[in-house]
Every structure is written in C-alpha cells, then in structure tokens.
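Sharing a chain and its predicted structure for anyone who wants a worked example. Both blocks are below, sequence first, tokens second.
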Amino acid sequence: MSRSDKSDLTALLHQFRKKTGIQPIPLSQQEEKLPLAALGAAFSNSSQKSAKKE
C-alpha cells in the first residue's frame, strides 16, 4: 500500500465518520471505557485460587 493509498483511506474514513457520527476512541480512553483491567484481575485471581488448591 502506497502513501497516497493510505492518505486516501484516511480521508475516506474521516468522511465516513462525519456522516455516521462515529468517533474513534483515543487509546488512552479505551482502557477507561472497557473493563479490561477488571477482566484481567478476575482471571488472575481465579488462577491464583486454583493454584493454591493444588
């Protein structure tokens, strides 16, 4: 993919987002909105409990 292809794609995405009202979520805010840390904690706690049982 050439640079012009990438800039064309970016422009198309920008137009699409304007029309549909979809806003991209910045990476810094994605973690706040998605409970990935909570999921990670749940999995790590359950794996620690099962390890202690053995």
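Comments welcome. The helical segments are 3-20, 27-33, 36-53.
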